[in-house]
Automatic annotation (TrEMBL):
<dbReference type="InterPro" id="IPR013022">
    <property type="entry name" value="Xyl_isomerase-like_TIM-brl"/>
</dbReference>
<dbReference type="InterPro" id="IPR037523">
    <property type="entry name" value="VOC_core"/>
</dbReference>
<comment type="similarity">
    <text>Belongs to the bacterial two-domain DSD family.</text>
</comment>
<feature type="binding site">
    <location>
        <position position="165"/>
    </location>
    <ligand>
        <name>a divalent metal cation</name>
    </ligand>
</feature>
<dbReference type="InterPro" id="IPR050312">
    <property type="entry name" value="IolE/XylAMocC-like"/>
</dbReference>
<comment type="function">
    <text>Catalyzes the conversion of 3-dehydroshikimate to protocatechuate (3,4-dihydroxybenzoate), a common intermediate of quinate and shikimate degradation pathways.</text>
</comment>
<keyword id="KW-0456">Lyase</keyword>
<dbReference type="InterPro" id="IPR029068">
    <property type="entry name" value="Glyas_Bleomycin-R_OHBP_Dase"/>
</dbReference>
<feature type="binding site">
    <location>
        <position position="611"/>
    </location>
    <ligand>
        <name>Mg(2+)</name>
    </ligand>
</feature>
<feature type="binding site">
    <location>
        <position position="534"/>
    </location>
    <ligand>
        <name>Mg(2+)</name>
    </ligand>
</feature>
<dbReference type="InterPro" id="IPR036237">
    <property type="entry name" value="Xyl_isomerase-like_sf"/>
</dbReference>
<keyword id="KW-0479">Metal-binding</keyword>
<feature type="binding site">
    <location>
        <position position="454"/>
    </location>
    <ligand>
        <name>Mg(2+)</name>
    </ligand>
</feature>
<feature type="domain" description="VOC">
    <location>
        <begin position="451"/>
        <end position="583"/>
    </location>
</feature>
<protein>
    <recommendedName>
        <fullName>3-dehydroshikimate dehydratase</fullName>
        <ecNumber>4.2.1.118</ecNumber>
    </recommendedName>
</protein>
<feature type="binding site">
    <location>
        <position position="239"/>
    </location>
    <ligand>
        <name>a divalent metal cation</name>
    </ligand>
</feature>
<comment type="pathway">
    <text>Aromatic compound metabolism; 3,4-dihydroxybenzoate biosynthesis.</text>
</comment>
């Protein structure tokens, strides 16, 4: 299939958009009319520029308020269309999108609409152009694809076909399962868009909050599968109206865009395979034909990730010393020093922390760039090589670290924002690369921390969708619901990604305000792409763990007394338990029959902090407690 994207989906001037789209290896564009009108260059020059970049101008759009008009307006619209056909000829663009009429003058008369579209198609045919008719969700009389299709059928002209847009169908909760019955050659173009679920006027939702397939919550896979079962063989295109994309660097948007299409194709390929293997299944034969006809993307399958293997921190010597002391206070044991590098390994339970201060290393460069930070993650994967191959097939860069003698080579990729993700066989200890520490200098006995419960990232607001797609497509994670958390100086948007089994959890925090701690972290690191905000470490007995750590000098974020009074009012908890929580700075969430107890340490070097958590049949992250934590952090360190 030809892969294309609407120019409205990206930031920049039209020329910059074309360059970014071409660099991400799209085949063509939907030229959004406003982009062309505002472009300082002729249609012929634009055509030449697109050709030079290997891009087709596959669709010109939109042409508005055409069908079902009274005769006088209809004649005027035909003149308007002829002028646009002139532009299309000069552009070398074969197809124009006519979206359903939103004018108050439009008549509720499908026969008139069909006759007028027939006339338009006849005019287009004289120039060998084609007309595609799309139902807008807010069209005056036509807003469902079935209505648009009935009008196209009734108009019965070979130069008139249907345009489908997943947003309009799915936003209205219309059933896409009739699409497979439409003859594929009568569908002229398909636009895909996802979106988060929002209770918003549909026009506002459509014009400001669409995102790429895989970044939202609409069932775009079912929609696209239906399209392919129809026999459709045209463009797979993205048309995304999104306020954030309008300011996101367009090279990143274009890569996200292509990644979303490769992911969508590969997911739907799996569905079609399933249907084709069971010939009795509905549409089994149509699925087999689609697979034969199309070259859908086929990356290696997603791996079920089995938790964090290690977390690597990039620091200088002074911070390395302090961080090692912090780890020991947290009950970690300093178990090894790297054979050939200034790298140290700390362990407690299944948690492995690596401190890298090696001069000249990438970890150290990241420190120079952003201060103390998490520069790499090790994730347990059943097949690490295949996990990295999938990432590369879905456009992640591979990472190779220079190897010392006898060092393990771990397949690795670069995450958005530059941190390295290594894939590791579960249970592989890092010890092979480390000289064991036998001095007995470290006598940490452990504090009951067993594994990493989750890692939370601080992201710039334009990185949320990028990370969501990276997590879903490349790491095989599922996205949870998005929430808004109140920092004293603005709102934080929060969304969790996790494996279905919850063995690996990642939480994304993005600030919509410039003044929150999260925003400050994004600014001071100079990196919008994500730095670790906190690391949550699990214990089976949080009271014992907090006591142990307090004895070892760990400092906790102080929680207001009012919080505990409110807990007693709000939840049916034993007063003695609540007072014990208060004495330990522990906060609590009780929901859906589960309970989450957690406490926050002071931040290390004003960067990341640690959270100690006890999770009992609880699937969330204590988001209800984020506000009291952020208020407490701000009061403890006002700035
Ligand atoms: O918001 C709009 O007007 C609009 C225009 C053209 C489209 O293809 C579309 O999906 C929406
Ligand atoms: Mg559309």
């Amino acid at each position: 299939m030809r892969r294309s994207i609407a120019t409205v989906s990206m930031s920049g001037t039209l020329s910059q958009k074309l360059e970014a789209i071409a660099a991400a290896r799209f085949d063509g564009i939907e030229l959004f009319e406003a982009d062309f009108i505002n472009h300082n260059g002729s249609a012929r020059d634009l055509r030449r520029q697109a050709e030079d970049l290997g891009l087709g101008i596959d669709l010109y759009q939109p042409f508005r308020d055409f069908e079902g008009m009274p005769d006088a307006q209809f004649q005027r619209s035909l003149d308007r269309a002829e002028r646009k056909f002139d532009v299309m000829e000069a552009l070398g663009c074969p197809l124009v999108l006519v979206c359903s009429n939103t004018s108050p003058l439009a008549l509720n008369d499908p026969e008139r609409a069909a006759a007028q579209l027939h006339e338009l198609a006849e005019r287009a045919a004289r120039r060998n152009l084609r007309i595609g008719y799309e139902a807008l969700a807010w069209g005056r009389w036509v807003n469902l694809y079935q209505q648009a299709w009935q009008i196209v059928e009734r108009a019965d002209h070979p130069h008139l076909g249907l345009i489908l847009d997943s947003f309009h169908t799915l936003s209205l909760k219309d059933d896409p399962s009739g699409i497979a019955q439409i003859p594929g050659e009568r569908i002229f173009f398909v636009q895909m868009a996802d979106a988060p679920l929002m209770s918003l006027d549909v026009i506002q939702w459509a014009r400001h909050h669409r995102n790429f397939p895989g970044q939202g919550q609409l069932d775009v896979e079912t929609f696209f599968e239906q399209v392919l079962l129809s026999g459709y063989n045209g463009n797979l295109s993205l048309e995304i109206f999104n306020d954030v994309f309008r300011e996101t660097p367009n090279r990143r948007t274009a890569v996200d865009a292509m990644r979303s299409l490769l992911y969508l194709e590969s997911q739907v390929r799996l569905r079609l395979n399933q249907r084709a293997q069971t010939p009795d299944a509905p549409e089994g034969a149509a699925a087999a034909r689609a697979l034969q006809r199309l070259d859908l993307a086929m990356p290696p399958p997603a791996q079920a990730l089995q938790g964090y293997n290690f977390i690597e921190f990039g620091v200088d010597e002074a911070h390395g010393q302090a961080l090692g002391e912090t780890f020991e206070a947290l009950g970690f044991e300093h178990v090894g020093h790297h054979r050939s590098k200034a790298v140290d390994l700390y362990r407690q339970g299944d948690i492995q922390f690596v401190i890298n201060t090696q001069p000249g290393s990438e970890a150290r460069q990241r420190f120079d760039d952003q201060g103390p930070n998490v520069c790499a993650f090790g994730l347990n994967a059943a097949d690490p090589v295949q996990a990295a191959n999938r990432a590369a097939a879905l456009l992640s860069a591979r990472h190779h670290s220079p190897l010392g003698p006898q060092e393990l080579q771990l397949p690795a990729i670069i995450a958005p924002g530059g941190a390295v993700v290594h894939f590791v066989h579960q249970g592989t200890p890092l010890d092979a690369d480390f000289e064991p520490r036998t001095t007995g200098a470290s006598t940490a006995t452990g504090a009951g921390l067993t594994h990493i419960d989750h890692v939370a990232l601080a992201l710039a607001h334009d990185q949320l969708d990028t990370w969501t797609l990276f997590g879903k497509a490349i790491l095989g994670l599922q996205a949870g619901d998005s929430q808004e958390l109140a920092d004293p100086f603005g709102l934080i948007r929060n969304c969790a990604l996790s494996t279905p089994s919850r063995e690996l959890r990642l939480v994304m925090n993005a600030s919509t305000s410039q003044r929150t701690r999260t925003a400050r972290q994004v600014h001071t690191t100079g990196h919008s792409g994500g730095s670790v905000h906190h690391l949550a470490l699990a214990t089976a007995d949080i009271f014992a763990t907090v006591r142990r750590l307090s004895e070892r000098g760990v400092k906790w974020v102080p929680i207001s007394a009012n919080y505990y009074d409110d807990l007693l009012a709000r939840l049916d908890l034993d007063e003695a338990l609540v007072r014990q929580m208060q004495a330990h700075h522990i906060v609590c969430d009780v929901s859906e029959g589960g309970r989450y107890l957690h406490a926050y340490t002071e931040a290390f070097a004003d960067r990341f902090f640690f959270e100690v958590v006890q999770r009992d049949h609880y699937d969330g992250y204590g988001a209800v407690n984020a506000a009291v934590r952020m208020a407490a952090q701000t009061q403890a360190r006002p700035r």
